[in-house]
Amino acid sequence: MTTTTLDSALPLAAHESRVGASSAALRPWRALLPSTGQVMGTETWQGLRARFLAARVERTAEAGRPIVLGDASHPYEVLPGRRDLLERLGAFRGLTVRIVSRGGAAALDDLDRLAHLDREHVVAVDLHLPAAATLPTPSHLEVARQLSARGLTVHLVLPVAAAACRLAPILREAHAAGIHDVALAPSAPSAAHQRLDRLRFEAGFPHPLPTRG
């Protein structure tokens, strides 16, 4: 029987995180499944895919882990079938769903869907900056403001290069935009994380959670 991995086979790409892991440490769901279109008895590939997704979501939720869509290398923007997946997650209740976005454009495009999903789940957006950006621009902060205004929890993830910049003004702007919290990329030196932690608390982070729904 021809086999393939879930990541390459399914147009419903999803990831689960280790307990307490950062977005950089996410591991993709992987399983050996029949090739697309193959019939297993009377069950089509589409039916198998739906059953596998449902079982995986249930196990992840029961373990108290979030459903994470994307990671730093393959963000939400490039996930195939992401809107279909949001609709499928709508059939569940009480999940924690994290969107790992690069720049936030796709999350903003799907804002109505994410806000609707947030009525039955807790939806958070990890907002990573584009590769060319060191600090958030006014447009990035505006994306965060719009997401937060609709009840989504927004985390701003700064690149390693940001550690060498003056962060206090950026943190004040991020707080004003309704961003829940700010972090450096996990690969930043520990001293940089410690410095940011001190500045975060001084700036009032973590920000109160937005009103949901």
Give structural attributes:
two-stranded antiparallel ribbon, 213 residues, alpha/beta, 7-stranded mixed β-sheet, globular, disordered N terminus, 9 strands, single chain
Describe this structure as you would to a colleague.
- The chain is an alpha/beta fold and 213 residues long.
- The protein contains 8 helices and 9 strands.
- It has helices at residues 6-9, 45-62, 82-89, 105-109, 111-117, 138-149, 168-176, 190-203; strands at residues 3-5, 15-16, 27-28, 32-34, 67-69, 96-102, 122-128, 153-158, 181-184.
- Strands 3-2-5-6-7-8-9 form a 7-stranded mixed β-sheet. It has a two-stranded antiparallel sheet with strand order 1-4.
- The longest helix has 18 residues, at 45-62.
- The protein is globular, with a radius of gyration of 18 Å.
- It starts with a strand and ends in a 10-residue tail after the last helix.
- Residues 1-45 have low confidence and may be disordered.
Helices and strands, with pairings:
Layout (H helix, E strand, L loop, with lengths): L2 E3 H4 L5 E2 L10 E2 L3 E3 L10 H18 L4 E3 L12 H8 L6 E7 L2 H5 L1 H7 L4 E7 L9 H12 L3 E6 L9 H9 L4 E4 L5 H14 L10
Parallel strand pairs: 5-6, 6-7, 7-8, 8-9
Antiparallel strand pairs: 1-4, 2-3, 2-5
TL;DR?
The protein is of the alpha/beta class and 213 residues long. The protein is built from 8 helices and 9 strands. The radius of gyration is 18 Å and the shape is globular.
